[in-house]
TrEMBL record:
Predominant place of localization: cytoplasm
Organism superkingdom: Eukaryota
GO cellular component terms attached to this protein's record: acrosomal vesicle; microtubule
Record carries keyword tRNA-binding: no
Protein name in the entry: TRI36 ligase
PANTHER family with a match to the protein in the record: E3 UBIQUITIN-PROTEIN LIGASE TRIM36 (PTHR24099:SF18), E3 UBIQUITIN-PROTEIN LIGASE TRIM36-RELATED (PTHR24099)
A Pfam family matched in the record: zf-RING_UBOX
Species of the source: Bucorvus abyssinicus (Northern ground-hornbill)
All residue ranges annotated as the B box-type domain in the record: 187-229
Family from the record: Belongs to the TRIM/RBCC family.
COS domain boundaries: 336-393
Amino acid sequence: KVPIKGIERELICPACKELFTHPLILPCQHNVCHKCVKEILFAFEDSLADGGSESSNQSSPRIKITSSSMDRIDRISRAGKKRNSLTPRSTLFPCPGCQRDIDLGERGINGLFRNFTLETIVERYRQAARAAIAIMCDFCKPPPQESTKSCMDCSASYCNECFKIHHPWGTVKAQHEYVGPTTNFRPKILMCPEHEMERVNMYCEICRRPVCHLCKLGGCHANHRVTTMSTAYKTLKEKLSKDIDYLISKESQVKAHITQLNVLLKETECNSERAKEAASQSFEKLSHVLEDKKAAALRAIEASKNLRLEKLQTQAEEYQGLLENSGLVGYAQEVLKETDPSCFVQTAKQLHFRIQKATESLKSFRPAAETTFEDFVVDIAKQEEILGDLTFQSNGLEIPEINEEQSRMYNKALISWESPGKTDSADIYVLEYHKLNREEETATWQEIEVCSKSKVLSDLDDDSSYAFRVRGYKGSICSPWSREVVLRTPPAPVFSFLFDDKCGYNSEHLLLNPKRTSVESRAGFPLLLGSERMQVGCYTTLDYIIGDTGIAKGKHFWAFRVEAYSYLVKVGVVSGNKIQKLFHNTHDVTSPRYEQDSGHDSGSEDAFFDSSQPFTLVTLGMKKFFIPTTPAGPKDPASRILPLPLCLGICLDCDKGKVGFYDAGRMKCLYECEVDCSGIMYPAFALMGGAAVHLEEAVTAKYGEYHDDI
């Protein structure tokens, strides 16, 4: 048997740091107390409601949401959005064990299983720790007697007399199951949290949790691979027993490793002291240099001060002599008393020169020395930056490089980097970023520690440029900073929507994926049949599809990708009160675009859209972006045709009545025009021939992926 005291570490809740109380099993297979789960969820939801303010996390003395969890709180409410369709609500839970956001599903905490096995082990540990403390009978009159058994069906403890009274022979209660005195009562049958009247009798190998037959028939486990509970029990028990036997058989090897680790602990202590001594000496040398520089600077300032004081003191004494009956004036007054002309002239000539010089100094007074010491200001900006980067550096640690292709700026910023050697040479990375502001001379870098090679940042300002850099750490050794990469955020908050599969959707010509994030137009048999009915003219019907969410006010941005093989795609916005007119036009035999075609290349007639069409769209196709013709725009057709960006964006400003079309990779505006926003505006797309449009996915924190062991 394993000593019960040796496993105390496994019985501590990662949230409250105390022994488990009614532990629940999370989807990531970590255990958390039932009370802790509720407190964390309440604190998390309060933080969401308050926009992530730290003051909202202090309601519970047991639980405190970490700053890393606070960084993952999104601002989910946006003014001016209206959702046509309802989506299932899921509950996110920041697991204190793995520091990840775990999706608890629609049922939230009610969909979690209690870990009765762990609860029983904790109870055995508590009994071993309090062997001298007896469990008292729940039914004795005061004073209660010590209990001798506990009934698992009644969930109560009894002494011998009370047990006989409450479980008389010949009754149903006499058949109850009883055990030794305990405070841990567990049900005989494990019931399904999704279907409370059904017992679990199967094991889902994908989700790694017990399920009932209703979960398999029509629930969320319908398409999952399941096995019988007995098979799962046998398989898992055999695996666990085999692994435990292997570890026990390697006891001598484990002891050897422990001995080696103890030696390494002592070596680490000694080596750390040596490293401290070497670091102290290095800093002492640096301190001596600074002390010498400080002393020299103070001596220079003191010498300059004495010289200036001497000059000012001499000047003050000279002006003191200009007062009546003192100094030069007093002496001149005495000379004026001389009556002998020859003696007077002999003395007065030199005196008059001094008097004239004093008179001139009065007319243009100027201190003999400056009082400021601006020439003695020490500029330490560069030295501060160097000292800020002062750390243990090693040439063997590779400099990471930020991957601009994998990094994205959308609703959040996803910054990815990699090592040139494609090896994980660093244990941890430090990502720094700051907003580029022309008004600020010096930038204040914000620092984040990251254990992986990517980081999702939120709460960045819209329509702003940010600089990013990263460095790796391996223990106390760090690499130099990577090259700075500048990325720009979208011009407005990101607007989320899906393709609407109801309003005007033509399922014969358009194909939506199950998530409604991609739409594809196929130039198939229906287009040939429509063209066959026409003897003259051109059959160029556009198939329209809109977003399922409308915009009533504010400024919003969304992005999408158009496949390179697409022949003709139009993108833009449409007013809600003109949607029916828009879809009615698409069923005409002859395209409205053909009726006003001027005979020039694709896109030349787009100048008439503002006045004659119930929408504002631009034309894309054949890897090109066509700028519509406007009176103020370029007249040369070649200058209106741009290469099609990999990702396009649209910015709608309902307050100013403008819509802009962007290269979403660089956040550069390609074309902007006015639009009537009197009604609710919807994203609009039109496809013809072979074409496909994919909505840009929002940047979210990556959930943990859990793999099956069976």
